[in-house]
Amino acid sequence: MRKLHFLVLFLLSISSIYHLVDASLHVKYLPGFDGPLPFQLETGYVSMGESGDVELFYFFVKSERNPETDPLMIWLTGGPGCSSICGLLLANGPLVFKGDEYNGTVPPLQLTSFSWTKVANILYLESPAGSGYSFARTPRAIESSDTKQTHQVDQFLRSWFVDHPEFISNPFYVGGDSYSGRVVPGVVQQISLGNENGLTPHINIQGYILGNPVTYSNIESNHRVSFAHRMGLISDELFESLERSCGGKFFDVDPGNIKCSNNLQTYDQCISEICVQQILLPKCKDDHVLPSRVPTLPNIRSGSRRELKEFSGNDSSSLPPPSCFTYKYFLSAFWANDENVRRALGVKKGFGKWSRCNTENIPYTYDINNAIPYHVNNSRKGFRSLIYSGDHDMMVPFSSTEAWIKSLNYSIVDDWRPWMMSTNQVGGYTRTYANKMTFATIKGGGHSADYNPAQSSLLFKRWIDGEPL
């Protein structure tokens, strides 16, 4: 088996000869933003495989501090199948949508004060093929999986570094959130194995960062019930009955257990109107449930009304109001599908409709059910890691992340304590382990960094610079 593994690595190293980095584009202006960009943005495609039948699109933002020596991080958005625009324009990049009510023109952008690119070079990758502006030329090529992503990201990076040799010596990190919690630890392991087996260029991998990471479904599903109880969303009596009838296991329940099933139905009713990404926010429609009727938006041009119908889910009657957190998802669809935007970014002609999350149209095999073994292997190799959780996220509760970290059985070197903002306010809580893993919560945070961007940015800056939180 070990010989077979090395053979696969060898074949991958041979195939990497055929990976082509298309001519990159230095973007100086973006529709929706007034004036030249005050940061350096590059976009491009990398062709994967011997026939180049997979084209992975990327955005590269140079650090605003010292790009020659600052760390370089590749950022993978979750999904699987969500665009890296979620990071670039929604979570931790240098621009965000203003959030104005849509009027039929290109949604306006503004600079942020919390971009992670203030202290690091960030490579936002659209992975797998079918995500964002990435695509495949054949039905077979678009097929993907967790493990296939780990190989393709490693191959992408080695090709990208050939075209960007000035960054080879920079400390390198892998980052991501949500579903990429399954993929990022595997990418770190794959890069490490490739380095050990002589793949070039050698990547100066130092560690990884994950936000609200999907890691092991059994743990996460079981912790949602206790999270709901701790947050006062279900009663003591229901929680105690759930514990007794379901035996503390709420994932893949035996349908013959009527009492457990009935309790879970009551639980579902209690949380049905909760925004699970951030339980304190109102539940709003997201970009997958856009309206089929638009007469409530009189200031939208007729051409844009047709576009709105095209993007709609045909099952709702009104847009989310601009006050909704998810309104920016709606704006991102109009921005990313605008032809002027595509020309400015160098998106290849003939590319179809962009979707923020194309999860239903990518043939995908979920073959990393449990990412914990990857964390163990990465810890043994000495890689540092930051695992952070918005403490009001119910999709991947902080308690589930804390549970699998504790299961690694590493000793604590810095016990549970608050970490502070520069305003002397508590930003969250943290604990550090002997395997160089730091766990941190973001107080009031949700499922991704954009729910509390100022706290997330400060957390990242301190960790990436090697400072105590």
From TrEMBL:
SUPFAM superfamilies assigned: alpha/beta-Hydrolases
Gene Ontology molecular functions: serine-type carboxypeptidase activity; sinapoyltransferase activity
Keywords tagged on the record: Disulfide bond, Glycoprotein, Signal
Top-level division of the source organism's lineage: Eukaryota
Signal peptide per UniProt: 1-23
One Pfam assignment: Peptidase_S10
GO biological process: proteolysis; secondary metabolic process
Family from the record: Belongs to the peptidase S10 family.
Name of protein: Uncharacterized protein
Organism: Eutrema salsugineum (Saltwater cress)
